[in-house]
Every structure is written in C-alpha cells, then in structure tokens.
Design brief:
- By secondary structure, this protein is of the alpha+beta class.
- It is globular, with a radius of gyration of 22 Å.
- Helix content is 32%, strand content 24%.
- It has 8 helices and 14 strands.
Length: 293
C-alpha cells in the first residue's frame, strides 16, 4: 500500500504489554484507518483488511513468539468482551487498535464484500527451514481468526532475511505504458482516448491500486458522495452513454512520453486530477465489472 512514514508509525504498537503484536494495521478499501473520526467511511462495497505483524531479531522462527500471539488473538478478537474484562494486561496502543477494529467491523458489517486477516512473522530466519511446530501454531492463529469472525478469510505469512531484502529493494514503478484507442498531440502534450479496461490495467498492479501515483492529488478519495455514486451508476448501467463522454478525464504529468503504435510510454508519472474517477473505475472492475464499450 506504499504507506507514508507517519502511517507506518501510526500502526506500530510494539512495546511493553503488546501481547506479541508489533504492528496492527486496519485497511478499508485500500485506505489506512488511523483516525476514525476523520475517516471517510464507505457506504457500500466495503473491503476490510487487517494486518497483524510480529517482528523479531532472531535468526530463526521461534514457536514462543507465536504462542504469545495465539493467546492474545483468542482474547482480543472476542468482541463481546470490554477492554476492562480482558484477562491480559495490554498497552493503550493495543487496546486502541482493538477498538478501531471493533468500530470498523460494526460500521462495515452490513456491506462487507471482503474481510481478511493477514498475520506476518518477520525475522532473520530462513523460511525454507521453519519447524513443524511453528507452522502448526501459525495455522492455529489463522483458525482462531476464522472462528472469531465467521465471514473472514485469514492467512499467515513468514518473512525471513531473503524476503525482507527483496521487499526492501522493491520500488514503486513510476514508468508505465498505457494502451489507447485514439490520440491527439501538440508538441509534448497528448490527449488520449483509452478503454476503461486498459486504464484499469494501467493503474493497478496484480489487482492492487497503484496509490503512489496519486501523491500529488490535492484530495483523497471522497467516498460514496453524489458524484462518485453517479460515476458508479454510469459504469454499472449498460444503457449509459460512453463513460468518457460524461467525464472530464484524467490529467497525468510526466517528465517524458513517447507513443509507439497504440501505446504510450510515460516516465515519472503523477496523476494530478482524476482520483475520484480512477478509484471508481478501480472499484468497479475489482467487484467483477466488465468493459462493455
């Protein structure tokens, strides 16, 4: 999700009485939930994803780390209990993260289309040499999550030294190609007409929205407001006019652009206008929509 430094810090709960949890991140429709009061809550088509991270400096993956996590999960995920009724002694950061999860689940439960937990254990160990007892405990953690939330999916990820180095070296790709149908040009300025599907492929990476391309936008996605609901209705209706005839389009700034055939190569991409349109298109295809144009 290419979180900022401040966003990463907001979910870091490591410290005394952390219950074996070092990172606790709640992501709703691709946006990190850090301040519930100022968060733009979706009214439909909600996707809730939770990442819980355990990070150790060990040179192996140890069962004791997951023993602690399993005990914590079995209690924290029992939302019938108030914080004051928990048997364990948990820090304020952990309790706040639990309350945020509880709030998100209550607000979104009626329109959830996807709910998932991802547990991650990171160390300097070798993921090809994880002991059976550690794997068994990881499976137990996954089972505890599924038992606590019957409608959720859950998975466990091990990150060893090799995986961490690979992730560290991975950089956002700001140089991409966009297929198009028609084009007009004047000097280094281009006006392109692209299909919805081709634009979706341009802004997504293995199903995830390339949110870093929108860092220069003055606004974040505004949620289910009137304009975005109209965009959604246009996309979903087969009787609607051509989508782009009703839309102002998307503005992209680049340091260089070159057309080869029916494709344009763009470098140092910044999408400065069209975030609401882009996110609506992304959500449409993510929910199974088709390009009928």
């Amino acid at each position: 999700y290419v979180l900022s430094r401040d966003e990463i810090e907001s979910g870091w709960v490591d410290g005394r009485n952390d219950g074996g949890i070092d990172g606790f991140y709640i992501i709703i429709n691709g946006h990190l939930l850090s301040d519930p009061e100022n968060f733009v809550w979706p009214k439909s088509g909600s996707q809730l994803e939770v990442w819980i991270i355990t990070c150790k400096h060990h040179d192996t993956f140890k069962q004791a780390s997951l023993d602690n996590l399993a005990a914590t999960i079995s209690e924290l995920f029992d939302l019938t209990l108030k914080n004051s009724e928990l048997r364990g002694d948990y820090s304020e950061l952990i309790l706040k993260a639990r309350e945020n999860l509880k709030l998100a689940y209550k607000k979104l439960s009626s329109n959830l289309i996807q709910f998932s937990f991802n547990f991650a254990y990171a160390s300097r160990g070798d993921t090809s040499a994880i002991g059976d007892s550690v794997k068994s405990r990881a499976n137990q953690v996954v089972s505890l999550a599924k038992e606590s939330f019957s409608s959720c999916e859950a998975d466990f990820h091990f990150f060893g030294s090799s995986e961490l180095v690979e992730l560290f070296r991975k950089k956002p790709n700001y140089s991409l190609e966009l297929d198009f149908n028609e084009s007009l040009s004047s000097g280094e300025k281009y006006v392109l007409l692209a299909s919805l599907k081709d634009y979706y492929n341009f802004i997504s990476d293995n199903g995830a929205l390339r949110r870093y391309l929108f860092d220069s936008n003055v606004r974040d996605f505004m949620g289910a407001n009137r304009v975005n609901e109209d965009i959604k209705a246009t996309l979903e209706s087969e009787d609607s006019p051509d989508f782009w005839s009703l839309n102002n389009g998307v503005t992209i700034l680049t340091t260089s652009a070159s057309i080869i055939g029916k494709s344009i190569r763009l470098d140092d991409i910044h999408i400065v206008n069209g975030l609401q349109t882009t996110e609506s298109i992304y959500r449409y295809f993510q929910s199974g929509g088709r390009d009928t144009s």
